[in-house]
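Listing S7. Sequence submitted for prediction.
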Amino acid sequence: MKAVLHYGASPGFRASLAGLADGLDIVVVDEESPDFAREIADAEILLHVLKPVTRAMIEGAPQLRLIQKIGVGVNTIDLDAARSRGVAVANMPGTNSQAVAELALGLMLSVLRRIPALDAMTKGGRQWSPEPALIDSCGEICGRTVGFLGFGEVPRRLAGAIEALGGSVLRHDPAAAPDAPGRAVDLDTLFGESDILSLHVPLTDATRHIVDAARLGRMRPGAVLINTARGELVDEKALYDAIAEGRLRGAGLDVFEAEPVRADNPLLTLPGIVATPHLAWLTPETLARSMAVAGENYRRLAAGEPLLHQVV
């Protein structure tokens, strides 16, 4: 059976594919490569990472049986097209939760402690001459309130760390268990009382631009936004204005509205922004867990058994 991994995989990623499953032939195609149309034409499995899976891509793969998302979010897949073609779609909940939780915490600390600016200053030979305003703009998690919009596996892992560092936890997620860590609040309270707001909800029609100018305006002066979920959750112009005008301290962003993010995106000009390239999920440990799920779903597909985590 042939599978196509549509991603610019690192050497370590490619190594994780070796011996994934007996009888599975995996071809790696970079996301911008013109070879994709040729390779997917006779493939039965598409291993999908980031580049959107369109109706045209699905229709160009007459033998396709499974789109296996390497990760959780399936908003980048045309689910209606897959459904109409009888192509199964499955994801991998939980495989990247630890990696995303750790990067979200890292982004909180990077924004609060101005790590990128201090790193550049030190490497530039100015170790003992920081700008006074830079030092005054630093802060700690201890004593601050961290709010989580959505309270799935990632926030659950983070909540204990936040509390151990001396922070308090708010959460807004109607589906969360009543005994989940932190204090359950409504959406207005979450925005109004969070010193750090971290986003952990899927992208839907209801959540698109859920972080808009009005809600950013309710946030405390000097607050921080963290987004390791989906870029379209945030109105980027409103976020830019809030930071540029000094109402928010900054933001840690692993995702953007349009990806790959353009170098001329105004947010990237702000010193309060810490940006990473949509890689919160990607560690060797995540890949090991992910390939175990992919291998099991290949086995199940070949055997005609129910798939793990099937979405369509």
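Caption to Listing S7: primary sequence and predicted structure tokens for the chain studied. The mean pLDDT is 96. The first helix runs from residue 11 to 17.
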